[in-house]
Amino acid sequence: MMTDIQIIETEDATSATTAVNLFGKYELGKLLGYGAFAKVYHARNLRTGQSVAIKAVSKQKVIKGGLTANIKREISIMRRLHHSHVVNLFEVLATKSKIYFVMEFAKGGELFAKVVKGRFSEDLSRHYFQQLISAVGYCHSQGVFHRDLKPENLLLDDNWNLKVSDFGLSAVNDQIQPDGLLHTLCGTPAYVAPEVLSKKGYDGAKVDVWSCGVILYVLNAGYLPFNDQNLMVMYRKIYKGEFRYPKWTSPDLRRFISRLLDTNPETRITVDEIVRDSWFQKGYKEINFHGGIDDDFALKDYGGDGNAKYINAFDLISFSYGFDLSGLFSDSEISVQREMFMSKETPERIIETVGEIAEVENVKVTKKEWGAKLEGQDGYFVVAIQVYRLTDDMVVVEIRKKERNDGSCQQIWKDKLRPRLGDLVYQPEVLVPGDGQDYV
pTM here? Predict the structure, then answer.
């Protein structure tokens, strides 16, 4: 799956205004931010004109950094979260060397940028804290623990409403150890909970509540409760819960923050208790949301028989060369090598062609709806083919090959079967400038 990439270069090659036409769908513009493995750009949907944010992740850097599992988990997490105060993920695209997260654009920028200009009033602090807890509580209900909540990861949309972002360090229920706790050390030092520092395991929900407490303190005070140039000194303050309230903090807010920044996770206030608290309740309007994976991201039935399926961008990434995300597939019946190609032929025609090839090559074929299984006479050669609907006029053909130690399966597929399928493969016209490398 290649893309039409057009580069509009400015005089300065590093300029943030460099524009890129990506996949013929998005025009990338200003660089919004960057990290060790990714860059985030403002972009425009060429069809609708909608502003989006696109995070371009380097596959090579991720693989070298051993963060493949983090990217898999981030995609899996974001596809299941749909809440008005969580940044929405629209789709995921991929090239040979990059993965692109197409996300909701938060025009207001980071909440952090507003706090550094001056502390918030108690009412405004409460307003944003209510939106934060609504999002965090929802994430917990979906089995997701953020683990890196801080003002830099809280964005504002064009209506100045809060959006939780950056789920790269998030954990899910599947990562909980037999002792019922998480054990991976992560998070930003000034916002990390004391039980994380103890390295004895921690409850992801309670760690998020602690971070929310630090955020609330920062909104009200304009500075951190725990801070020191010496990291170990700061950690000791966190572990002991040593901090002071600014003089303008109301008694009710002091009481509330003390419950959030309780160093004992067993007695620390829970999200349910937060929502019922009198300080929190002032002016609070409960936000309705729906759980589960959105229909747009789920595999959809196609046609009347319910067997043919749409494939989506999350599944498509699993086939990306050099970056295996096969863990996102629920079907793990056989451990195989995978290939895929795109075609504009109908699924029925593709399966019919597979049957014709099998007959010529004297290979046994078992057909099913939009799928086929090819078996050699000796029982060792096995190829499973499945067709998925990508768009109304485009399908993706997935090939799974059960490999034999002597490589005979690969040879039969490569020399006999795959060449005969060549006429079915869709070959888009590719326009790549210069040396053909990704420029984002």
Answer: 0.64
